[in-house]
Amino acid sequence: MEDLTEPQPHEAARYVTYNEDGTLDGCYLQVPPEEHVDRMIVIDEELAPAWVNYRANEAREGIELAPAAVSIVDLDALKSEAISSTYSDVDAVTAAAVGNRVEEYRDAEVTARVFAAAGYEGEVDVVVSSYAQYNPTGEAQTNQWAADQIIARADAFRSAQKAMRAQRFASQAAMRAAETPGALAAAAEAWNDFIAGVRAALGV
Fold first, then answer.
1. Three-state SS letters, the chain
2. Residues 34 and 111 in one domain
3. Domain shared by 78 and 111, yes or no
4. What is the pLDDT of residues 58-86, one digit of tens each?
5. Residue 124 falls inside a structural domain
6. Which domain holds residue 42?
7. Which of the pair, 49 or 9, is modelled with greater confidence?
8. Does 125 share its domain with 177?
9. Same domain, residue pair 86 and 182
């Protein structure tokens, strides 16, 4: 921050003027007119040629380098990249949860639901009984336990699919509507937090 002094009345000064949001809108070497007095900052002469690269600091008593502007074209490119990532994120969760075994898991789900609807009575297909015998607990379980596990897993994944679809639409809309890189980053971060939550819920 520059060490600045206020110009004396009727004394010419090198100064910049700023808008309400802190952007600078002019650089002058003159006696400040009345309309500039309440929105001006005196600067060193060496800063004058590059004043467009600065903005008023938060206290409005000095200037600081303004963040690099992102062009509309750049922002559009960032939006496209962020929106595209929502698809790849959903694909990644799906791949981690079921991979190429969609048909296998669907078979097991249907069989487990039929078995559960029958009150867990009668014979059960090997897609359920094999999971009862060989499962992550390391110990043989009952066919009812296996059916309930398969159904719970299927329900969780279907719920996650619906949630990801709905949130993908909402997040993409927020990304398209973003008018600044900061707003876009916030929308992308919200989406990333959501996906992290889905992964945690599914254990993938």
1. CCCCCCCCCCCCEEEEEECCCCEEEEEEEECCCHHHHHHEEECCHHHHHHHHHEEECCCCCCEEECCCCCCHHHHHHHHHHHHHHHHHHHHHHHHHHCCCCHHHHHHHHHHHHHHHHCCCCCCCCHHHHHHHHCCCCCCCCCHHHHHHHHHHHHHHHHHHHHHHHHHHHHHHHHHHHCCCHHHHHHHHHHHHHHHHHHHHHHCC
2. no
3. yes
4. 999 999 998 876 555 689 999 999 999 99
5. yes
6. 13-65
7. 49
8. yes
9. yes
